[in-house]
Amino acid sequence: MMNTKPSEPTVHDLASEDDRQWFLDHRNREYRLREPLPGEVRTVPGRTALVVVRRVHPKARMRLPFYVEWPKPAGEAPEYIAEGFFKHCTSLDPRISEMVGAMREACASAPNQEAARS
To answer: Max CA-CA distance within the chain?
Structure first.
């Protein structure tokens, strides 16, 4: 007999759902800067882990973790700060910009299908 019990969501499933809901609640935003969920990224001694999220399409987001040597400021980062961190991360690896373009194309070509989750 096959086990039909649904699997527990992974930390990445939870992060994706959290980001999806955040962008639904902040429809005027394209970027988000947040602390990672527990277990979402590895810890690095002496560094603060952050995640910058880019809404590529209403149904698709890209998350990029990075590390800084200072604590995350309190409160929500404004759009321009989150955008600046995303652009800095993408400047370090041009393949990220290519992935954003590919995600947009895939979402645009399949408007009636559920896009791949971030």
So the answer is: 54
CB 62 within 8 A of CB 15: no
Task: Show the tokens assigned to 2.
Answer: 């096959």
User: Do 40 and 11 form a contact (C-beta atoms < 8 A)?
Assistant: yes
CA dist 95 and 82 (Å) reads 19
Instruction: Convert the pLDDT of each residue in 5-64 to its tens digit.
Output: 678 999 999 999 999 999 999 999 999 999 999 999 999 999 999 999 999 988 899 999
Q: Is 89 exposed, middle or buried (0-12, 13-18, 19+ CB in 10 A)?
A: middle
Could you tell me the residue ranges of all domains in the chain?
A: 11-109
Yes or no: say if 19 and 32 are a contact pair by the CB < 8 Å rule: yes
What's the rounded Cα separation, in Å, for the pair 2 and 75? 47
**Of 68, 26, 73, which is closest to residue 44 (Cα–Cα)?**
68
Of 69, 81, 66, 11, nearest in space to 35 by CA: 66
Side chain identity, residue 115: A
